[in-house]
Structures are given as structure tokens and as C-alpha cells.
Amino acid sequence: MARDFKPYTITQFQTFINSLKLKRKINHIQIHHTWEPRKSDYKGEATIRSMWRYHTETRGWQDIGQHFSVAPDGLIWDGRSLEENPAGIAGHNSGGIMFEIIGNFDRGEETLEGKQLDAIVAAVRVLMSKFKLSTNDIVFHREYSAKSCPGTGISRDWFINEVNKRKIAELNQNSYENADGWKRIAIDWLYEEGLISSGDWKDNVNKGLPLWAEALVLKRIYDKAK
């Protein structure tokens, strides 16, 4: 009997991920394209279910290989349990969260753009924040395989630049995930140095700290300088 799959908007995905308490250690984010189905083949949940059938009935896997599938309309479909490693890159799945971007993004084929690009970039930034990862922890399938995945039309440098700089209206404009790259670097430094600790400050990075928090940061700086 076919299983059901749940779609998330960017905002719903952010809420879902931020509520997670995983036992599995996450150390990287895998980026793939489906190649087939193409963007033009996408038919909502039926497309996700067809991938599930192929993975379970033809490949003999326990479930669909990816944790999330990013659709051309910007929806992010759930998949394999996040407590399970993906079936994405042979020998390199431990600790990974896997995205399949629906489409064929080899040169001359389809283009990763618009709502779909917003969705994958937002999802990656949410995961980076949740699991304290950096862009160095983003893995393209082709880095460990002879495949072109996630498509010869997508360069790593371009994708990382989109993750760092792309503005996504559906994310909270004042949140850490949607802040400029230079702001996130400064905020990361505050946490790394132990000057602030509560994750709540990341909800509105453009709002000033209350007086007591400013005083606490100054005291910690003073103590470090002794």
C-alpha cells in the first residue's frame, strides 16, 4: 500500500525543523537533482509517490531515498525519516540530510530558479542554523561520484553564493536565516566566543539587545580580556 507524503511551504518547513529533537548527529547536507522526473513531469504528490515506489519496489530500499524533495512550485515534500541516513551517496551517507531537487539541471536542460530556488536555499539555511553547519558542509552528489548530479548547470560556487546572499520573502526578514552573510558571520562569532548563548536572539537580528543582555556581553568580554 502506498504511503502518504506531506508538503511544506518554506515557513512550515522552518517551523518543523526548528521543533525537531533528533537523536542522529547531522554533519552534512546532500544536494541532488532527480534528472528524472523532470520539472515538466511534476504532478504533485503522485510524483513523490512514484519515486517512493521505484526506490522501494525496484531498488529494494526500506523507504524513499531522500529526506526531502523540492518541487518546481516551491513545496518541500517530506520523505525518509530524519532519524535514518539517506540513500544518496554510496559510502558517504552517515550524518547526512538529503535533498532531491525535482528536475534535470544539466546544461541545456532545465533551470533551477524562482520558487524552487527559494525553497532549496531557504531549506539549506534553516538546516545550517538548526544543526550549526556551514557552507563547507553542503555536499554535491558529484563530489563523490562520476555522476553530474545535481546537474552540470549548477556550479558549487553559484549555489553557495545563493545560500549566502539570496533574499527570500517567505522567511522572516529579521531572522538569522535571512540575514546578510556578513551579519551571520558576526552573529556566529558572538555565539562561538560564548558572548551570547540563547538561540532566541536569532529570531530578530536587527533588534537591539535589552540593557541587561548588553551588560552581560560586555562583562564576558571584560572577563576574557583579564
Describe this structure in words.
By secondary structure, the protein is of the alpha/beta class. It folds into 2 domains: 7-170, Peptidoglycan recognition protein-like (Lysozyme-like, 3-Layer(aba) Sandwich); 183-225, no CATH class. It is 35% helix and 10% strand. It has a 6-stranded mixed sheet with strand order 1-4-3-5-2-6. Helix 1 (10-18) runs parallel beside helix 3 (114-131) and helix 3 crosses helix 4. The longest helix has 18 residues, at 114-131. The mean pLDDT is 94.
Alpha plus pi helix count:
6
Number of domains: 2
Strand content: 5-15%
Q: Which class best fits the helix and strand makeup?
A: alpha/beta
Class of the largest domain, according to the CATH hierarchy? Alpha Beta
Which descriptor suits the 3D outline? elongated
How many beta-strand elements?
6
Q: Round the Cα radius of gyration to an integer and report it.
A: 19 Å
Mean pLDDT: 94
Task: Provide tags for this entry.
226 residues; alpha/beta; Lysozyme-like; 2 domains; six-stranded mixed β-sheet; 35% helix
Summarize the structure.
By secondary structure, this protein is an alpha/beta fold. The chain is 35% helix and 10% strand.
Draw up the topology in text:
Elements lengths: L6 E2 L1 H9 L9 E6 L11 H14 L9 E3 L5 E3 L17 E6 L12 H18 L6 E3 L15 H10 L15 H12 L18 H15 L1
Parallel strand pairs: 2-5, 2-6, 3-5
Antiparallel strand pairs: 1-4, 3-4
Helix pairs in contact: 1-3, 3-4
